[in-house]
Write a structure and sequence with these properties.
mainly alpha; 2 domains; 57% helix; Endonuclease Iii, domain 2
């Protein structure tokens, strides 16, 4: 039997939607799209794929992996030391923009400096500490770190309030006239802790499955 958090049961619209579509499959989604083993590699992958369709992102990341130790698309990207030693021309040939190239080098330096933790160290750090540390890197924003927390580290209580899909899903669940701001969304969902990653998944599903909220008719 599906276990629904009590805070979800106390929210009429959310509870009805959960009962309609069934158990959260967030971890199934994570397992279908396995992450690279270390946060360093996952950040490289995330930045490489920014503002690109999935196919293009996979292609460019695969070329970057060809520069790694095994030199094939199933291997890992270059180590921080190797990446920093590569010529700009070599990296640009992977399909990287200048901005992304600089971001990847900043990530590599961040790993060398210890700003980016190992997977083992990351497991011992809080969500907010990881967000603060990693979002200080060039090209790595809060949303990118939140996706790492949800899908890579499988943290249970992360709600990316700046995510447009989460905002729109909540709007459709609650039939709101406008999408909530990040601040309003945070205030409206605090009581769902410690299950806000699950809430994010249901918001994404609501955005995909529920009809848009009708726009109010304008007065003549």
């Amino acid at each position: 039997m599906m276990q629904i958090p009590s805070s979800f049961q106390q929210d009429a619209e959310l509870y009805a939607f959960v009962q309609k579509i069934g158990p959260c499959r967030l971890h199934e989604q994570s397992n279908r799209c396995p992450q690279t083993p270390e946060p360093y590699y996952s950040l490289l992958k995330a930045v490489t794929g920014q503002q690109l369709h999935n196919a293009a992102a996979r292609r460019i990341f695969g070329r970057l992996c060809c520069l790694g130790p095994d030199q094939n698309e199933t291997s890992l990207p270059p180590s921080p030391q190797t990446l920093l030693s590569l010529e700009e021309k070599t990296l640009r040939q992977c399909g990287l923009s200048q901005a992304k190239l600089l971001s990847l080098k900043a990530i590599a330096q961040g790993r060398i400096d210890g700003l980016i933790p190992s997977l083992e160290e990351a497991q011992s750090l809080s969500d907010e500490i990881l967000i603060k540390r990693l979002s200080s890197l060039r090209g790595v924003g809060r949303w990118t770190v939140e996706m790492l927390l949800i899908f890579h580290l499988q943290r249970p209580d992360v709600l990316p309030t700046g995510d447009l899909g989460v905002q729109e899903g909540w709007r459709r669940l609650k039939i709101l006239e406008n999408r909530p701001t990040p601040r309003c969304l945070k205030e409206a969902t605090t009581h769902f802790s410690p299950h806000r990653s699950t809430l994010a998944w249901y918001c994404w599903q609501a955005k995909a499955l529920l009809p848009p909220v009708p726009q109010p008719s304008k007065k003549p």
